[in-house]
Amino acid sequence: MRRLTQLIVGTAVGIFTFWSLILQAQTDFLDTTFNIGTGAQGGFVESMAIQPDGKILICGNFTSFNGQPKSYVARLNSNGSVDTNFTADVSYWVRYMALQTDGKIVIGGYFTSVGGQSRNLVSRLNSNGSLDTNFVVGTGCTGSMGVAIDGNTNAFLFAISIQTDQKILIAGNFTNYNGVFQRGVARLNTNGSLDSTFVGTGVNNWVRSMRILANGQILLTGWFTEYNNRTYNRMVRINPNGSADTNFNAFFGDLTSVYTSTELPDGKMIVGGHTVNTNSVFQQEVVRLNLNGTYDTNFNNGGSGANEKVESVALQADGKIVMGGYFTLYNGVHVDNFARLNSDGTLDNTFSANVNSWIWTVLVQDDGKILLCGGFSSVNGASRNGIARLNTFSPPVLFNPKRFSNRFEVSVATQSGKNYTLQYRDSLTVTNWTSLPAIPGDGLVKVLTNSNPSVSNRLYRVLQN
User: Fold this and answer.
1) Does residue 270 sit in helix, strand or coil?
2) Residue 177 pairs with which residues in a beta bridge?
């Protein structure tokens, strides 16, 4: 009876806490525990990467962060304070970064030197921010395929992805890598040399984003209309050897760019971008694609979508989609550069954030909280220069792991009427979670198991729903 009473009291407290969170969520989603002080100064934050320990790597064209001289790259503690143990010496704007499983960081952008040594547009940092001299790029990325909207004709890197074998994919606006003709996309070996087994002539215009899919294929998006001398309109799916997957043919029309994508558990894609074409193609700025690249007309069926640029999309564990950009309307409803969509593409009216200027990147943390970065200076009226974090008040993520040679298991004290789902993903290389069959709670302790885990650095979590 005493145990039963404890369970009932615990449940009652949990219900009270839950409703307290809901009431709080209705007033302000800004996570005030993430305190960045004066934040980014001298420029904006363009991209982020979350380390397994919860620390957050940021990059952009800023020259200081919270009063500390952190130019173009910095690392924040999980509470938003500057990690003073991380110092990088990069000559100019870093546009993107990718984290290796060993903690090293591959960076790309407009820079020409790191740590006083020549590193043209691409380099690798040690985990403390110092230059990794074992990563040799030679002359690096050179040549340009076009002129930026600000008139800049220089080459630059826009995207980096790390494969499970730790080879490095780079993409952007360049025509050569270390003196070898390579248009817009290349794959590097772990030492920085060009991987000649990655075949093809590349794209005919900039690549804006790149994503390694769950099956090992690679999705490229951007301004291009050709890949390997064949027509591919703003998006192409390529095989691990660099050849195009001819079974995937997306079309976004002219005067268009695709800026971002995320893969759904069923293999479909959420993609966002911008168009000024007049032929009604991609007018919603965010769509869902079927497995062959055609539009999924069941997504936001009949809705007008966003009225301006969608720069970044990310997937929550519950299937909802968060997105940021320059837009002020979604399906005719006023929003401020940020929105959360239901899984069917309709606007989730229960969640909002007033961001006073554009968002470049959105990321979902393992605990469900949402990171935003870009050119904004306030969120919900509070000063937040360049980066902020939002609460989502999602169902709790529970951890109590035990790893054996042939299985992973976690013990969970369940509640009746709740379902518990064990999810996993391959650390740092796959962003989507794979769910095992849900187990219904009955008030007793349950053991959730994944047998024969094949990846040693696989991440696990348990969701209560």
Assistant:
1) strand
2) 141, 180
CA 85 from chain center: how many Å?
Answer: 25
pLDDT in tens, 156-200: 999 999 999 999 999 999 999 999 999 999 999 999 999 999 988
Tell me the DSSP string of 442-462. -SSEEEEEEES---TTEEEEE
Complete DSSP assignment for 375-433 = S-SEETTEE-SSEEEE---PSPEE--EEE-SSEEEEEEE--TT-EEEEEEEETTT--SP
Beta-carbon contacts of residue 325 (< 8 Å; ≥ 6 apart): 259, 272, 285, 306, 308, 309, 310, 311, 312, 337, 358, 359
State how far the Cα of 305 lies from the Cα of 316, in Å rounded to an integer.
Answer: 19
Using the 8-state DSSP alphabet, how is residue 27 labeled? H
Q: What is the DSSP string of 105-119?
A: EEEEES--EETTEE-
10 Å CB burial of residue 247 (0-12, 13-18, 19+) is exposed
- Nearest one of 127, 130, 93 to 108, comparing CA atoms: 93
Residue where the block lists tokens 């903690």: 103
Is residue 25 within a helix (H) or strand (E), and if so which, with residue range? helix 2-27
pTM for the predicted model, two decimal places: 0.81
